[in-house]
Amino acid sequence: MTLQRPRGTRDFLPDEMEERRALEGGLRRIAGQWGYREIGTPAFEDAELFTIRSGEGIIHEMYAFEDKGGRLMALRPELTAPVIRLYLNEARVSKKPIRWFYFGNCFRYERPQKGRYREFWQFGAELIGMDCAGTDAEVVMLAQALLCATGITFSLQIGHLAFMQKTLSGLDPETRRRVRALIDKRDKDSLEALLDGREDDVLSRITALASCTDLEDAFAISGVTDERDRILEVFSLLDAGEVSYTLNPGIARGLDYYTGMVFEAFAQNLGAENQVMGGGAYRLAHLFGGEDTPSCGFGIGFDRVMASRGVREPSPSLKVAVIATPEGRTWAVKVAAAMRSSGLTVISDHSDRSIGSRIGGAVGEAAIVAIIGGREAADLSVTLKDLASGVQTTLPLSEAVTMVVSRGPCG
RNA sequence: GCCAGGGUGGGGUAGUGGUUAUCCUAGGGGACUGUGGAUCCCUCGACCCGGGUUCGAAUCUCGGCCCUGGCCCCA
């Protein structure tokens, strides 16, 4: 038996790889238009970088290992922590706000299923060092612009932690933590069991908030006043940016470092693993020993976006197949080089069959064949045959190149 | 970690205990050598792994691995 690829990983053949690169390129271009610049971080880091953020428990869900120096390392399971680490190491005195985006593979030791792999790719953006309604709105608008560009159908939900925090403010910290986790899980039964018998109406308020989609209702139910102006401004900016979203004050986010606005997007046509984007405003830098720094960012599940897009026809490109007879081979090398210098994609046919069968073999692979035999080699010309139309002409090299270039892409 | 369904050449398949494992497709080689995937010939190549039952296992059985989907988790 041949060796197998590791569980939960994938190989990409050229068709799929081209699609992935095309999508990647589109996302990079848009992030660039918003003034975000790409950064890169190592594939592995000190495991501590991730356990500080998410707790010791996640060590079992990471590819963690001891290196030869006895250090506990981990393949990165996500990219937000590395980005903040990079910021603290290299850029804390940079002009604020910092706008960065990233695209990279991440690794988690989990059971594979649809939309979940042990190696997966994330595209994300972070805005670091400024915290206002304008930055909150910008980050959400960027996320939406990126997702729209992928062509998938998704729903965007936006909330703010203030609603739930205010609603839960009467509870002791431990109960509050458990309630938040249960809300995140949407575990209604356990929630009722935990809060049953309380004098206040916390349970009913939580339930009302979770199903509330109107901003004024959310303020009324939760009693939020301090952050009201900020929240209203964010949403009015989002409306001005024509972002289509659903308000979801029930987004709780179990993690403590999220501070304000939170948002998520779900693809319409995926199974259980349908969240394609998640993000929010957070403060993480102080956990890593830096100065307390506000940030706002999101991550897009690249593989889930690919899955949601489904299989697409590869885009056609203009390719030239160079078919040479033994007498034409030397000249054919020069012809191919000249064509490539002009930006064309050229495939040299090195087989030794009849011209006829080689033309046949080029059908479906190339749009044009260049036939180079003794006659062409003798007068430094090229015979071009358009496989779609069957039209054939013999021209001097420079004219032949010009003609192919002007033809443009085709199937 | 749990549940369900799966695993036969590169891809797709036939095969309910019995010859040399079927067929399609793809790949390689040859004939053909200045014009459309042709044709003809040759060829490579598989029962996921291991134990058990049996005279005999792709087939029955147990364990593992892997795949697909779901649960848990989801930073």
Short synopsis of the structure:
The chain is of the alpha+beta class and 411 residues long. It is built from 15 helices and 16 strands. A hairpin with a 7-residue loop joins strand 9 (258-267) and strand 10 (275-283).
Count of runs of 4 or more consecutive helical residues: 15
What is the strand tally? 16
**Largest beta sheet: strand ordering:** 1-5-6-11-10-9-7-8
Radius of gyration: 28 Å
Any idea what the CATH architecture of the largest domain is? 2-Layer Sandwich
| Mean model confidence by pLDDT | 91
> How many structural domains?
2
The largest β sheet comes out as: 8 strands, mixed
Which parts are unreliable, with pLDDT below 50 for 5 consecutive residues or more? none
In the CATH scheme, the class of the largest domain would be Alpha Beta
- Overall body shape: elongated
* Terminus-to-terminus distance: 39 Å
User: Could you name the CATH homologous superfamily of the largest domain?
Assistant: Bira Bifunctional Protein, Domain 2
Tell me what portion of residues adopts beta-strand conformation.
15-25%
- Structural class call reads alpha+beta
Query: What's the helical proportion of residues?
Result: 25-40%
Q: What is the fold named in CATH at topology level of the largest domain?
A: BirA Bifunctional Protein, domain 2
